[in-house]
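Recap from last week: sequence in, structure out.
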Amino acid sequence: MRNIVSTLQDPSLVCRFQSYFGVIKLAEVENDKKYSWVATEVKGKYAEIEKDSTENHNGIRSSKIKDVSNGNGHVCTEDTKEKNQNIVYYRISNKFWYHLFLLGSLLGHEAWYAFVYSFLFWNVDGSVGRRVMLVGNFLFYIGQGLKDVIRWPRPPMPPVVRLEQRWAAEYGMPSTHAMMALSLPMSVIIFTINTPYVWVWVTIGSFWCVVVCCCRLYLGMHSVADVLAGLGVAAFLLLFTIPIAEYGDYFLLTSPLAPIVTLILSVLSIIYYPGSYKWTPARGETTYIIGGYFGTQLGCWLNYQLGILHPASDPSHVILQPLLLQFLLSLARVVLGLLLIGCIRAVVKPVSFQIGCLLMQT
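Predicted structure tokens:
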């Protein structure tokens, strides 16, 4: 078993995946072992590698990029970087896969999750949105916590070419991108299984899951073991979270104690989040997600208390196949809703930040 895990963690598998889909590593320039590595794309049809036999100030032999593009393209050279940086030069030979997997990375951003949740509330059914959001937030919390408990590093660069830096400070095991790419589409499918257009969710969900999982390898952010572990953990947790969301939604919507219970559990989950011996952005992102869930749940509870919402024990009975007019109305709701969310965020975020600083006296 240990040999299997070690094999799946091998960064050479990621390198081979990147090379197959068009990420060509050209050179590794090591200037100072104390500094981290950065990846720099070489652009230009006729760029080539020139081996330099000279040594830098640390006695390390390195390769340099020579610009021989003759004006046909731009090539990044060592002069454009700090002298102490260690640089991996690479070229993208297939733009289709590059942009497709960048899209896959965007499908793992919090902004995309917010859009999916909002779309379900506005255009599918509120009960589906609440249940899917509960499942997604629970799995995201477990995945982020496991990262800071297991503390397995991401694939090293080099040999891997890391094309994304946003989550580089986090640990890699398991891949929360893979967990969310499986759990969100699967929960939508399960909660709308009897609807006439469930095949749409199956198609979108399959594309979503495959592209997101593959993009983690393509961008050099996860090993094969990280991705497979994320899928396995998500599949296992779905066995418990789907029934919890199914039967707990009525209590969270109707009970007078629901806001207090949700608030206490949210605060405790943040306070007792599994810590790490070094700072990682995982805890901050988890707090952000939990805060968003609490606000949404509180809003739904208030709408029910005011008589605006009514509980639905089986959302499949109230979801109809959309017609052209309904499609246009759905599109209008999405556009207006996103504009309203953007305006509210622009006002509330700086105000809440200042209030937080005053309360924390920072």
